[in-house]
Amino acid sequence: MSLTAAEVAEIMRLVEQSGFDELTLEMDGVKLSLKRGATPVISPAAPESSTARTHAPSPPVENVPAAAGPNVHEIPSPLFGTFYRAPKPGAPPYVEVGAQVEEDTVVAIIEVMKLMNTVRAGVRGTVTEILVIDGQLAEYGQSLMRVRAAG
Amino acid sequence: MRRILIANRGEIATRIIRTCRKLNIETVLATSSADRDSLPARLANRTICIGPPRPSESYLKIDSIVHAALATKSDAIHPGYGFLSECAPLASKCEGEGVVFIGPTAAQIAAVGDKLRARSEAEAAGVPVVPGCAVASVDEAMAAARVIGLPLLVKAVGGGGGRGIKRVDRLKDLPASLELAAAEAGAAFGDARVYLERLVVSGRHVEVQVLGDGDGRVIHLGERDCSVQRRYQKLIEETPAPGLSAAFCHALHAAAVRFAERLSYRSAGTVEFLVDCERDAFHFLEMNARIQVEHPVTEAVTGVDLIAEQIAIADGAGLRLAQSDIQLRGCAIECRVNAEDPANDFRPSPGRVREVTWPSQEGVRVDTHIAPGSCVPPFYDSLLAKIIAHAPDRPSAVAKLRRAIAATRLEGVHTNLSFHEAVLADPEFQAGGFDTGFVARLLERRGAVTESRPNG
Fold first, then answer.
1. B63: which chain A residues are within 8 Å (Cβ-Cβ)?
2. pTM
3. Which residues of chain B does A134 touch, with a Cβ-Cβ cutoff of 8 Å?
């Protein structure tokens, strides 16, 4: 039994809401590959089809770097310095994956010799990935976060 | 010292990395985004992009560079030449943050950066200066000009490298020139003070390399003649200075050592002199508180790695060499290969280098950051490489350098290699001992030759 169109749509909706850009789902002889900004591919994985059970998608086995699709924006570091996700140690981060941001939402700070510089999202959408670890150096122009643009 | 952050680019970054590797010191290179794929960026143990191409937003950002050094746990910063190499605020920031600055102290940089202060230090050290003095008013200047004699130069106290200079030939032009020079100096250097200096009509540029331990001990490593200049930019440097008597050179070396001793100078530095060809005398010009572009000619004849000595001094090892350890052997000549077009008024020629072959001959050294595919960005100076030839005597060094240039191939950008070929083939150059007017005379001669040919 193959996946129905409605089931694929449901899986796509779940992926949309998740922090992932790519999904490969293999079950009972059916392989489903989903990628943001691409059309889903369903191909028979086994010569004989068998009964398929629809599950909520599980996380991909490998943590491959997600490819940036057409709607995915990367927030570049506006300057070189140390990347911090929160205004001060112990404070909650400015944003988490899944957060909705506006162009002028502060998403992080870059510290240079104790001078704090705010980083704004620059785009309206949903944060899908945070690419730099808190407290690590961020080079000038390095991608700090990915945001799926709204609309 | 385990790890050094290099706050520079181009051939000098490559040069510093080479010595660090030899000494088993790790390197962190702070680059702009225009240089992140450069040869030194590939050679360094780690490369950090600290800003966009414009130097003011990357190579000149003191805070970013010190932050990079601290965050990468670098023990020291090597500033190379240019950029922040003679920036007292960087040196003092390093002093404050516990990062070693590979160079002189902030106070020494400030002392030699103020031209008037440097002049008075020279006088106090018994080093002759070009006749001249500071002037605070027009009346003072008129009186001083009568003593100094004409023609003279009005110079900016905060200037240097040929900038902020006005020539005065007639006494009645002095008030206007003073006013103009002070206004320009105020705008360009943030310091409107000016001083007068006699114009030495025919002078050679001869400088002395020194090393100091910071506790008052200074040695010299001979002199370099840098009289092949175009618009105050050096193009060819050599050691020893041709035609100077041993006694004259000895006096020059001793004067440089006295000056550096007076400052208890630390690290490698260069004391520049103007050798007055007409009067057979020399005068102090200024001190450069950094490693210089032309340091390899000194390394060739002494066998001393000046970058390694800078690092050792910065590391607290002091001077590892006594004056008697310095033996000057043979003659070394360096030419600066620039990305510029001699046929087009030496206009800079940035771009991508498609193919390049550097000479590989015994006694020839090439310091470069250029390999096939290298980018020459328009934001920085146009130096591509330095080719240095070392031989037992000057004629063989000239011949060796000519062969090295002939073996050099570079495609994709214009270079001044044809200009160097012309200089090295010129009888006046081959005779040696000319003043800084040499390049202008050579270009005039070549222009005359070009014009005399119908199809130029």
1. 112-113, 115
2. 0.85
3. none
